[in-house]
Amino acid sequence: MTNTDGKDLVLNRDGEGKVESITVSFTEDLKPGTVSVEDFEVDGYTVGNIALDEDASKVVITLEDAGNAGDSYTVRFVGSVSDKDGNAYEGKGIELAGAKDTAAPTVNLTTFEQVNNGKEIILTFSTNEVIDFATDADVKISYFTKNAEGKLVAVSNKQEGGDFVKDKTWSGYLWTPSGSYSQGEEQDKNYKNVIPANTVLSTLVKDSQSYVGIDWTKDQTIVVKVEVTDNSGNVSDVATDEVDYKAPVAPLAGE
Question: Do 87 and 120 have their domain in common?
Answer without folding.
Answer: no
